[in-house]
């Protein structure tokens, strides 16, 4: 046992939904005391940094109910059970942007909010976009608009908090590290 590990004594499932599971765990702390942890389990997600031939960046705008506002984000979506992240990345790219690719480069993965949630997002990059000949259907409860932006426009969207989520902020920083300006 590591010096920071918390040993689960008891787990109580609170909610088991389509996207998340919520539980409350009683834990034994490293000092022997006990505490309670509220946990959100998530199956994981992918995000795709998609760059056009003319060095524009494909983003989608959609309403985020927890925030009560629309955000501009990189194309992304949740993993299906037993689905490889690369497969999810291609599916989401096609559904949300009307493009596909035969060249997908793994960038990294990261936990979004490890203080209470185990959601892991896999981030991919492509600059080899191929327009689809036939539009793919979005999920029945998904409404979004796809647009392309310059880096200056992305910077402005960040300043105005239209881009205001971790995965997209990370993606923009990654593009800058790759030399896009």
UniProtKB/TrEMBL annotation:
GO terms for molecular function: hydrolase activity. CDD domains: NUDIX_ADPRase_Nudt5_UGPPase_Nudt14 (cd03424). The keyword Hydrolase applies. Keywords: Hydrolase. Its cofactor is Mg(2+). Residues 40-171 form the Nudix hydrolase domain. One of its GO terms (cellular component) is cytosol. GO terms for biological process: nucleoside phosphate metabolic process; ribose phosphate metabolic process. Pfam families: NUDIX. This is ADP-ribose diphosphatase. It comes from Halolactibacillus alkaliphilus.
């Amino acid at each position: 046992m590591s010096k920071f590990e918390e040993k689960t004594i008891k787990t109580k499932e609170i909610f088991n939904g389509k996207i998340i599971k919520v539980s409350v765990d009683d834990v034994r702390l490293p000092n022997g005391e006990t505490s309670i942890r509220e946990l959100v389990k998530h199956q994981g997600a992918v995000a795709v940094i998609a760059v056009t031939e003319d060095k524009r960046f494909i983003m989608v705008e959609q309403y985020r109910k927890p925030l009560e506002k629309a955000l501009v984000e990189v194309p992304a979506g949740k993993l299906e059970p037993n689905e490889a992240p690369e497969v999810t990345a291609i599916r989401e790219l096609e559904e949300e942007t009307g493009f596909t690719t035969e060249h997908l480069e793994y960038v990294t993965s990261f936990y979004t909010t490890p203080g209470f949630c185990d959601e892991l997002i896999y981030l991919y990059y492509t600059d080899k976009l191929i327009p689809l000949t036939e539009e793919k259907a979005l999920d029945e409860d998904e409404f979004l608009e796809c647009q392309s932006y310059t880096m200056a426009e992305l910077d402005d969207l960040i300043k105005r908090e239209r881009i205001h989520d971790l995965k997209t902020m990370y993606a923009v920083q990654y593009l800058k590290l790759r030399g896009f300006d």
